[in-house]
């Protein structure tokens, strides 16, 4: 019997020839994040299993908004020194973890990584099994090992050709709207097919990032020359692409023809509430805030498309647009390319790279009754601030076009 | 670990996110909050007043599908601080389920539980066998039991990851006996 991508990677890390869904295994893990260093210290353990494989950045409330948070980060820096952690990214040299860790070579095809933060599924874009370990990460820090229950795998076949203005965000909103936000629960989701190949790394990254929004443990793409091009100069260890076997067993297979896809938005409340933007056009949904940021959609090409749409124009007078690149590295590239200047001239507030607005914690929280269109990944009640606020999810193009119009519009109107 | 637990049921719907259990703007902004203080904000967006005035230690949560979806914030910490004895849900997000095991809060996947019990009724739950008895109707339902000897079973029975790790780091010689 053949194996899926996840089964192959898990088996290799468990030292087994094969594994089956449902089986409990202990695996060697290739890397983790440093969020649980305080818990490691509390256990009295005075070294990590491999200091070069621990990555850390402070991104959620960065830089600190309060003394309490500042003291937490101060303690973190002490632990980084104490445990001699190699890959720590100070403010100005960091950004949002999923982007920063990838830029610094944490992920490579075939690897198994368990790190803090739910959107760790994002790393699946690199053909690696990357998933969340929250409290569990302390076990990895101590032993370099973690238990897994081998997930069932499902395949999502993306057929057709993606039309202009549609990007990875529109694809995942479409998939989540049709299959629901639970179809990947406990599962490894593999995205394959012509559109998977067609998409840029940044677009695939959005799809993997929102893997957790469909419940997935892993959200995987196969490796190709685009994968290698991103990793070149970042990863110098050897790796091999991993694909599922032709006779591997999948719990389900779903097919989409995306040739007729149109830009999507997810209505407030659940990322699975996706509908074509054109269908809400008649509602005239006025927005107070447009957020172009987060680990989901604030990469260079996301800023580029927003800059194109806003070039020479002004953000609507009743709208504030917040822009926060996914890393300081992306910030620098966007600066050099002139995108940030265009966005500034359009009247957008360009922030440093931070999680703040995305999770409603810092630097742009929504007030009662306010509406935001966001390029991020979650629109749960209260996610971006007040429980009485409303978050619509969309692609960077739709966010930028709506910022201009002052209401939710289809970016194709700005062609 | 007490394996048979009885308590009064609070019912919640589908997709109760960890943002509900631990609102980001309350909890992340105040890292000095104790678990008890953080727990006061539990479900404030979807059920205001519940954490502060209604729920009692020993109560049981019954929920719909994908309980604990969303952020990896440890919602179980707040449920634990409120004294919740058991969580039963149609399905549970993977991240939340691991957090629950690591927190030592018995959380069982129990297909059919939403129709099995009304809010306010009392349940008896055997957290090892997964047998759930509705003490008001006398009916029973089989929840998914943790596989005996599996890592999550061992961690849960140890009372959570911290207790489990304290033994393991000694066994492996990472800290002195
Ligand atoms: S940008 Fe948002 S989704 Fe991404 S890691 Fe930060 S808080 Fe989480």
Task: Walk me through this protein's architecture.
The complex is a heterodimer of chains A (415) and B (177). Chain A is an alpha/beta fold. The model of chain A has no long low-confidence stretch (mean pLDDT 97). In chain A, helix 11 links the parallel strand 14 and strand 15. Chain A is built from 14 helices and 18 strands. In chain A, the strands form 5 sheets. In chain A, strands 13-12-18-17-14-15-16 form a 7-stranded mixed β-sheet, sandwiched between helices. In chain A, strands 10-9-8-11 form a 4-stranded parallel β-sheet. Chain B has a single domain, classed as Aconitase, domain 4 (Alpha-Beta Barrel). Helices cover 33% and strands 18% of the residues of chain B. Chain B is globular, with a radius of gyration of 16 Å. Chains A and B meet through helix 3 and helix 5 of A and helix 6 and helix 9 of B. Iron/sulfur cluster (SF4) binds next to loops of chain A.
How would you concisely characterize the structure shown here?
The complex is a heterodimer of chains A (415) and B (177). Chain A is α/β, with parallel strands linked by helices and 415 residues long.
Write the layout of secondary structure elements.
The complex is a heterodimer of chains A (415) and B (177).
Chain A: H1 5-14, E1 24-28, E2 32-33, H2 37-42, E3 54-57, H3 67-82, E4 87-89, H4 97-103, E5 112-115, E6 129-132, H5 137-143, E7 145-149, E8 153-159, H6 168-179, E9 188-192, H7 194-198, H8 201-209, E10 218-221, H9 225-231, E11 252-257, E12 264-266, E13 274-276, H10 277-280, E14 289-292, H11 300-310, E15 320-323, H12 328-337, H13 339-345, E16 349-350, E17 371-374, E18 390-394, H14 396-405
Parallel strand pairs in A: 2-3, 3-4, 5-6, 8-9, 8-11, 9-10, 14-15, 14-17, 15-16, 17-18
Antiparallel strand pairs in A: 1-7, 12-13, 12-18
Chain B: E1 4-11, H1 18-21, H2 24-27, H3 35-39, H4 50-54, E2 60-63, H5 75-81, E3 86-89, H6 94-103, E4 107-109, H7 113-116, E5 122-126, E6 131-134, E7 140-142, H8 151-158, H9 161-171
Parallel strand pairs in B: 1-2, 2-3, 3-4
Antiparallel strand pairs in B: 1-5, 5-6, 6-7
Helix pairs in contact in B: 5-6, 6-8
The structure holds iron/sulfur cluster (SF4).
Iron/sulfur cluster (SF4) binds next to loops of chain A.
């Amino acid at each position: 019997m053949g194996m899926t991508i996840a089964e192959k990677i898990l088996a290799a890390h468990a030292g087994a020839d094969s594994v089956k869904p449902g089986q409990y295994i202990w695996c060697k893990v290739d890397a983790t994040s440093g969020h649980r260093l305080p818990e490691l210290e509390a256990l009295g353990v005075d070294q990590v299993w491999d200091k070069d494989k621990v990555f850390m950045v402070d991104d959620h409330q960065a830089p600190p908004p309060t003394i309490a948070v500042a003291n937490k980060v101060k303690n973190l820096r002490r632990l980084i020194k104490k445990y001699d952690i190699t890959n720590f990214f100070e403010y100005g040299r960091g950004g949002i973890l999923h982007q920063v860790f990838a830029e610094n070579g944490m992920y490579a095809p075939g690897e198994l990584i368990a790190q803090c933060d739910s959107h760790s599924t994002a790393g699946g874009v690199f053909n690696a099994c990357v998933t969340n370990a929250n409290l569990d990460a302390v076990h990895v820090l101590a032993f370099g090992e973690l238990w897994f229950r081998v997930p069932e795998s499902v395949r999502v076949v993306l057929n057709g050709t993606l039309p202009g203005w549609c990007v990875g965000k529109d694809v995942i909103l479409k998939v989540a709207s049709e299959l629901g936000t639970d179809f990947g629960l406990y599962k490894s989701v593999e995205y394959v097919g012509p559109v998977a190949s067609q998409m840029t790394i940044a677009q695939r990254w959005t799809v993997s990032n929102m893997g957790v929004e469909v419940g997935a443990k892993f959200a995987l793409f196969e490796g190709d020359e685009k994968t290698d091009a991103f990793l070149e100069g970042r990863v110098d260890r050897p790796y091999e692409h991993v694909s599922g076997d032709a006779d591997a067993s999948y719990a389900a297979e779903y097919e989409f023809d995306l040739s007729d896809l149109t830009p999507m938005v997810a209505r407030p409340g659940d990322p699975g509430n996706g509908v074509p933007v054109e269908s809400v056009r008649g509602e005239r949904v006025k927005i107070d805030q447009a957020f172009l940021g987060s680990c989901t959609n604030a990469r260079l090409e996301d800023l580029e498309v927003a800059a194109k749409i806003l070039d020479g124009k002004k953000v609507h007078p009743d709208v504030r647009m917040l822009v926060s690149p996914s890393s300081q590295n992306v910030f620098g590239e966007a600066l050099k390319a002139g995108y940030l200047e265009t966005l500034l001239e359009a009247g957008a507030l360009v922030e440093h790279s931070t999680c703040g607005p995305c999770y409603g914690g810092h630097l742009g929280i929504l007030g009662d009754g306010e509406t935001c269109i966001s390029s991020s990944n979650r629109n749960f009640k209260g996610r971006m601030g007040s429980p009485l606020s409303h978050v619509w999810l969309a692609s960077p193009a739709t966010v930028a076009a709506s910022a201009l119009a002052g209401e939710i519009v289809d970016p194709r109107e700005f062609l | 670990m007490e394996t048979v637990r009885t308590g009064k049921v609070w019912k919640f719907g589908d997709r109760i996110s960890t943002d509900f259990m631990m609102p980001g703007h309350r909890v992340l902004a105040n890292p000095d909050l104790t678990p008890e203080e953080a727990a006061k904000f539990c479900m404030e967006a979807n059920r205001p007043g519940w954490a502060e005035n209604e729920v009692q230690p020993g109560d049981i949560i019954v929920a719909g599908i994908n309980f604990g979806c969303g952020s990896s914030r440890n919602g179980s910490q707040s449920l634990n601080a409120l004294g919740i004895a058991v969580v039963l849900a149609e399905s549970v997000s993977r991240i939340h389920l691991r957090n629950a095991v690591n927190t030592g809060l018995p959380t069982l996947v129990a297909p059919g539980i939403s129709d099995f019990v009304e809010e306010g009724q009392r349940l008896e739950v055997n957290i090892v066998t997964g047998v759930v008895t509705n003490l008001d109707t006398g009916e029973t339902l089989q929840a998914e039991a943790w596989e005996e000897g599996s890592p999550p079973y061992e961690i849960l029975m140890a009372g959570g990851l911290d207790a489990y790790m304290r033994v393991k780091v000694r066994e492996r010689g990472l800290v002195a006996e």
